[in-house]
Amino acid sequence: MTTAALIVAAGRGHRAGGAVPKQYAPVGGIPVLARTLGIFLDHPQVDWVLVVTNPGDRALYEAAVPAHPKLLLPVAGDETRQGSVLNGLSALEAKSPTRVLIHDGVRPFVSPATITAVLDRLATADGALAAVPLADTLKRAGPGDTVAATLDRTGLWRAQTPQGFRFAAILKAHQAAAAAGRLDLTDDAGVAEWAKLTVALVPGSDANRKITTAEDLALAEQMHASPHIRTGQGFDVHRFAPGHHVWLCGVKIAHTHALDGHSDADVGLHALTDALLGAIGEADIGTLFPNTDPRWKGAASHLFLEEAARRVRARNGSIGNVDVTLLCEAPKIAPHRDAMCTRIAEILGLARDRVAVKATTTEGLGFTGRREGIAAMATATVILR
């Protein structure tokens, strides 16, 4: 099963004002379109990304969008959004994707979790779209801007993107709508509904707002500048058992004993995994990877840490820095500290200077002082946007 993401960015965006169309306006120093593309290019279920652009914006596109193995050459848009989407779908036909996500280029705050939810819903429906239940009371205007009626908002949702579809079905629907002269359908779910396809609603987010006006751009800048900083902590202990090496922070170290555990018993990575999970309010490592599950028997602990990092990214978050302290009398940690930091940085995709590993003894006190095992403490900072 393959998935393409079609990013619609051919509009001129006059309501936003500014020297360039809104999709090329900077937010936090990065063009809106580049931010949007980055989310889809990084998503593990997306195989190709194609942008529909205005031919007159080619220089702006080239300046804003860096090359990427998943990114296809852009195609020209049409006078209408509906026509632009059809141009993009026609260009993607050569790739024969199973599924397609259609997304507004000026929605740069969509979360990876929303993308995943839309794709998952395609298992049981022809299409699915991110949407938010309507919360505001609706009024119908009468003469002289007076209120003529209050409308029932029960069952009403605000449509967002991405809107996902089985590729062959939505391509056929767009072609049929164009042939029938139905060019007034305001979104791709509307095209699918006109073609009698089943379209499901997937809960979206108010953060996934479309940048339309200058006020929206200002708010987007504020959202970028005001991240939520979270801190998590983790603690873990493993006793010694017969063996000839230990795993600590992803590094294999020769020792007189091994650490006892259901997995490889890497006490440092276990504490760090819990720190990341704690920062985003998730369940702990023992809940997600229980020692009663045979899948994790002897498992390498970097798998647990990678999953914690994936969950951070699914929350539209990034890892600021991580810090691990190992408590033991032996083995000596100093000769391996740099390798440990490097390995953690590789697992989490961080710069080396955002990872710290330290060690201390307990001056012969307690179970670590008696050389019965090793303990680890960890903290992690997560930035949620």
Brief synopsis:
This protein has 12 helices and 18 strands.
Structural overview:
With 385 residues, this protein is α/β, with parallel strands linked by helices. It folds into 2 domains: 3-225, Spore Coat Polysaccharide Biosynthesis Protein SpsA, Chain A; 228-384, 2-Layer Sandwich (60s Ribosomal Protein L30, Chain: A), CATH 3.30.1330. Helices cover 31% and strands 29% of the residues. It contains 12 helices and 18 strands. The strands form 5 sheets. The protein has a 7-stranded mixed β-sheet with strand order 5-4-1-6-10-7-11, with helices on both faces. Strands 15-12-18-16-17 form a 5-stranded mixed β-sheet. The chain is elongated. The two termini are 31 Å apart.
Write the layout of secondary structure elements.
Elements: E1 3-9, E2 26-27, E3 30-31, H1 32-42, E4 48-53, H2 58-64, E5 75-76, H3 81-92, E6 99-104, H4 112-121, E7 127-133, E8 138-141, E9 147-151, E10 157-166, H5 167-179, H6 188-194, E11 199-203, H7 214-225, E12 228-242, E13 245-248, E14 251-254, E15 257-259, H8 267-279, H9 285-288, H10 302-314, E16 317-327, H11 337-348, E17 355-360, H12 366-369, E18 373-384
Parallel strand pairs: 1-4, 1-6, 4-5, 7-11, 16-17
Antiparallel strand pairs: 2-3, 6-10, 7-10, 8-9, 12-15, 12-18, 13-14, 16-18
Helix pairs in contact: 3-5, 5-6, 8-10
